[in-house]
Write a structure and sequence with these properties.
alpha+beta; two-stranded antiparallel ribbon; 1 helix; 2 strands
Amino acid sequence: MVAQRDYEIYFNVSRLAQRVAEAQLRLFVESAYVRDLDHGTARPRLKKINFFHIAYNRLHNKPIRSP
């Protein structure tokens, strides 16, 4: 059995086209690392945001709000 690990991933999503019908998204991973006892985080744990929610809002120029 493989142990489950939490990762802390920082990324940015941007649009490649101006019109929604032709829009494509580009995902830039800025950094990622395993979150464990030796490597904690200074950020508070927030609720997860579904990636498709982020992508939909980015495609339609809507703000992305944390839950």
